[in-house]
Amino acid sequence: MKRLFILAGVLSLASCGSTPSYHYTLSPNGSTLSAPVAIKVGPYALAEVTIPPEVDQDALVVQQSDGQLLKLGFDRWTAPLSGHLRTALSLELTSRLGMPPVQNLTAGLREAGVTQVQVDVQRFDLVPGKSVTLTALWRITFASPKQILTCFTQLEQPVGPGVPALVNGQQKNTQQLSDQIARALIQRSAPTGATCSAG
Questions:
Q1: CA distance 147 to 91
Q2: Residue 185 lies in a domain
Q3: Which of 49, 93, 155, 157 has the fewest CB atoms in 10 Å of its CB?
Q4: Has residue 2 got a pLDDT over 60?
Q5: What is the pLDDT of residues 72-101, one digit of tens each?
Q6: Over the stretch 25-67, which tens digit does the pLDDT of each residue have?
Q7: Domain extent for 186
Q8: Which residues fall within 8 angstroms of residue 1, CB to CB, at 6 or more apart?
Q9: How far is CA 147 from CA 24, 89, 144, 185, 197, in A?
């Protein structure tokens, strides 16, 4: 019995001394709500965000100097990246448009009167001490009058050493992508910084 107590104590100390996990978000605090323009934009839905499978997980995946990918053991997003990025885009669009997307209303995704927003992230690179990159092909299918705007965005931020610098850089990229999508929803035309075609 004495040995069991000693073993339990050792295991307890070992668990207390283990390295804690750090959780990061692409939605920084302090976003300011713009003047509401939701009446002009109308209801819109944000579809599931697609992202390269090699980085679509809750662990941060960094690119090493030799091009290999390394999954960090203790640095994580608050959710798997595709869902987390969708949430971040939703919050940023809400801040800019004064109205959230109807992404949680299943019927809204099928209604003809709802503008559809689709985002396909093609690169989400984290290169420690160097840069972070986000490239995305995104499409807006306007409800009325019917119009399709397809755009390509390439964003890159230089970063210093450390994981917080990587996260901060991708926060900026996420904000810039959200801003472009919001401007396109308002203007119904190509925003500054994106290459677009209308159909």
A1: 25
A2: yes
A3: 157
A4: no
A5: 989 999 999 999 999 999 999 999 998 889
A6: 998 765 545 555 555 788 899 999 999 999 999 999 999 877 7
A7: 21-198
A8: none
A9: 37, 22, 8, 11, 11
Residue 158 maps to a domain:
yes
Q: Is residue 105 part of a domain?
A: yes
* Rounded percentage of the chain residues whose pLDDT exceeds 90: 64
Where b means 16+ CB within 10 Å and e means fewer, 93-130 reads: bbbbbbbbbbbeeeebbeeeebbbbbbebeebbbbbeb
Query: Could you give the number of structural domains in the chain?
Result: 1
Give me the sheet containing 194-198, strands edge to edge: 44-46, 115-127, 131-142, 147-158, 194-198
| Residue 179: CATH number of its domain | 3.40.50.10610
Torsion sign, CA atoms 45, 50, 55, 59: positive
Name the residue with tokens 């807006």: 140
63 membership: H or E segment, kind and range: strand 59-63
80 within some domain: yes
